[in-house]
Amino acid sequence: MAMATIRIAIALYFWLFTLSIIHNCIICSGNNSNVISCIETERQALVSLKQDLYDPSNRLASWVGEDCCKWSGIICHTITGHVCKLILRGPPLQYFLSFTELDAHRKTSLGGKISPALLNLKHLHHLDLSNNDFGGNRIPKFLGSLASLRYLNLSQAGFDGMIPHQIGNLTNLCTLDLHGRTRIVNLYFNYFNGYAKNLQWLTHLPSLRYLDLSDVELHHASDWMEVTNSLPSLVVLRLSHCNLSFNSIPPIHHINFSTLAILDLSFNYYYSENTSIPKWVCNIRSLTSLDLRRNYFIGPISEGIQNLTSLMHLDLSWNYFNTSSIPRSLYELSRLEVLNLQGNQLSGTISSDIKNLTSIVSLDLSWNDLEGKLPTVGTQLCKLKEIHLSGNKWNQSISQVLDSFCGCVSDGLEVLDMYSNDLCGRLDRSQIWKFKALTEIYLYSNSISGHIPASLGNVSSLRSVDLSHNHFDGSLPESFGQLTKLEGLYISNNYLEGTISEAHFANTKKLIWLDASDNQLTLDLSPNWIPPFQLGGLSLGSWNLGPQFPIWLRSQEHLTYLDISNIRTDAIVVPSWFWNFSAQLTFLNLSHSHFQGRIPYISKIGNDSLEIDLSYNHFEGQLPCIASKVIGIDLSNNNFSGSISHFLCNKPWELVDLQSLTLANNQLSGQLPDCWSKWLNLRIINLSSNKFSGNIPSSMGSLISLNSLHLRNNNLSGEFPMSLQNCTELFALDIGENNLRGSIPGWIGSRLLKMGIISLRFNEFYGHLPDQLCALSSLQILDVSYNNLSGRIPRCFNNISVMAQTSDYYTYGFSYTFGNYMTFMEELLLVMKGRAGEYNTILGLVKSMDLSSNHLSGHIPSEMTSLSGLISLNLSNNLLVVEIPNQIGEMKALLSLDFSLNLLSGEIP
After folding, report:
1. What is the pTM assigned to this prediction?
2. SS3 letters for 220-263?
3. What class is the 731-909 domain?
């Protein structure tokens, strides 16, 4: 809505231009019996073109028969029959797509190579191959010989390499679109974008009106400004994501952009540090749209911006503008319809001069340092449809905010975005009922209290409502069941209570996402209830779901996200049908509840990864087999029993995607199978507190991505596995409380250089503490207590730099995120102040060394006292002699110190 005028202007330009191109052209169909058939040589050229193209979805199936003018994508001249337009564009590619959608797009895209036979279409005016997948092929140089071309679109088609300068031979070109694929797509698929070392070839295109080179690498093309400034007819210029350098532009003595209306230089931040808006931009008075997002521009917003009196769209978001207030010059741009200053460092209050923006349709001032009270604009900004003010510090109640918009604004406002604003007060005492045109309202992460007003349920246009993370109490009004357009309802993390019945969903046929977790609500539905909606996401954590598992979930054919964790109902048996139903999910969380039963199989059909958390329940029996697309699974704190061989080794030929495996605190037994080499993506393994026996298998050494290995509290035996020296990414190793023996290998300090946590407590290790441990500069926790170690304490422990630092919380290695939702947090049993406890959320604060209950001898090295970051040091129950080092007082962070049960003498320092 906010972009309406700009889009209309662009559409009008293309409509007029296309009209001029297709003059005397027509799509020949079977009904046009008087239209001349296509030229035979051109038909043969198209046949050759088809033969060289890869067409997995058979899009060119109509390319048969003698009359090529009847083929899809072909437009011929009405009189001569010459092919004048070739349109083979693929389906549009959106910015955010799932793996499944991206893969489906590739299956409908043309690929292969472009045949030189295309040169036989000598009257071709219009060529569109956009949104296809040519897999990194170069743009053919011979396209520069299609002398009649006026329109060339190769955008998002997967071409790679340097843009051929022969394109500059197309002197009739009016439109050139070579923009590449967005960066987010490149992360998942090997799509390619071109590059250019200079743009001199563009100077031969005097008729060029539309130029889009976005996502083309241009950081070596220092002439980009000089060249584009020389194009006399340019109306639209898009150079987003090109790595442009604004610092190295040669001086421009005269600006020729007399016809330029749309300029997009966004996302060129990499090569433009410590710069402000270039002065020449503010001299292009014909501009109607200017996009300078994410360029690391700093300082004040240029006062010269007021010269751009034709501007209707201005986007300066996510820069580092840091003026004490929004500059008055912006308020003088009376034609502005879209103003986006999101994500800067603007401070101060909003001036009442904002009333001068009488044409404004969309206003985004979110994520700045603005504060104070909002000016009353309800009777001036009558065209305002969207207002985004989130992430500031408005010192007002929600009622005062809504009052400032009452008037013609409240009559037409569609989007109200004010989350994370420190707003307070009661929404049920506001005039929210006056905003009858609202489609989206975002008030989450504030301190709004009281009941959710029933009048909000009467705003029939609402599509998305987010009131989560506030202090609402009472129940959800039944009037929400009448919101026939509602697609998303987010009310989580409040103090809501009461019963939710079928009436709350009576007419919500379009509901896609419902997040109401962390409330005290009870679901009371008929066992045979069939919902009117088809959800994509459902989160009902902490609810009372009733005595039975919700059968109505079976009707949700599009559900991909399901969280019914921490429910307040005892002993619910999960029915067998649910595990087949879970095949459609990408996230499943049933944790911290009282679910029971056996899990037959956790499958996954499709291409998206599955994340599963079933921890802290009463599931029993053997572990279920899992399919290859599961990337994270947590089955800890249940009653699973038996071997895990079938779980790990049932498909040895299949490379699996699993990254996180947590099976701690179950009744699993037997030996650890030696088939870990198939799980090459594993980063987290937690098998603690089970009944495993035997050796640690050597195949664990093939897990080169492993970050965390927890095998504590089992019956494992044998020596420290040599193969673990291959796990060079290992950060946390906990193999305490087993029956392991042998010496502690020195290669831990030479090979596992990222180690932050080592716990070997309660085993039978003997020999000396290796000096190589001193090379572990990141080591934060070392626990080798209750072993048979002997010899002296290494004097070089002072080289462990993290233990010597008093800096705050460490985050690296203590938590990991997998997929879109799951997070694994390191957890460790530590003994401090004589008490054993599990540490997790604050583990990053802990720096501890426990060498107690061994046979260590000699004196306490004075060098240890330089470990000023330690909060716990335990050397008790050894054979240490002489006195405590005098420098012990330098260890000012110590909370726990134990030297008891040694042979120490002398005075206490």
Report:
1. 0.86
2. CCCCHHHHHHCCCCCCEEECCCCCCCCCCCCCCCCCCCCCCCEE
3. alpha beta
